[in-house]
Design goal:
Layout lengths: L4 H23 L6 H20 L6 H17 L3 E2 L4 E2 L1 H18 L3 H16 L9
Antiparallel strand pairs: 1-2
Helix pairs in contact: 1-2, 1-4, 1-5, 2-3, 2-4, 3-4, 4-5
Length: about 130
């Protein structure tokens, strides 16, 4: 059994990075928490790895585009509009960024994925963005 280590490292990193965003959502008591974000990030990472390595000659950008479109549908299901406000928009956005982080990780862009995770986490935790006077 010959197992390449590089795809396994990518998959583990995708798991960890999406888990960081998911943990923040879990601690904030949001409906889509740790498990949902990890599964989206892990799935995006795995599909990207497969698109790059399992199908020689195929266009891997098609899989990346399909992931983002699919996550758009998943995110749309998290958004609820009431007469007073819209709920779940940030959750939808976090699912979208976690999928993007998974694609970056699966493609081997580790530094880009790590920086995106740090930035996403910062936006979620720094409530200064919510206190901007309107």
């Amino acid at each position: 059994m010959n197992v390449e280590l590089e795809p396994v490292i990518r998959l583990i990193l995708g798991f960890v990075l999406s888990g960081i965003v998911g943990l923040e959502r879990e601690v904030s008591l949001k409906p889509a928490g740790l498990r949902t974000h990890v599964l989206v990030g892990l799935g995006s990472t795995l599909l990207t790895i497969l698109s790059l390595q399992a199908f020689p000659g195929a266009d891997p950008s098609r899989v990346a585009a399909s992931i983002i479109v699919g996550i758009g549908f998943l995110g749309a299901g998290t958004i609820i509009k009431t007469e007073e406000k819209i709920i779940g928009l940030t959750t939808a956005a976090t699912l979208w960024i976690v999928a993007s982080i998974g694609v970056a990780t699966g493609a081997g862009f580790y530094v880009l994925a790590i920086v995106a995770t740090i930035l996403a986490f910062s936006v979620l935790r720094l409530d200064v963005f919510e206190r901007v006077p309107r």
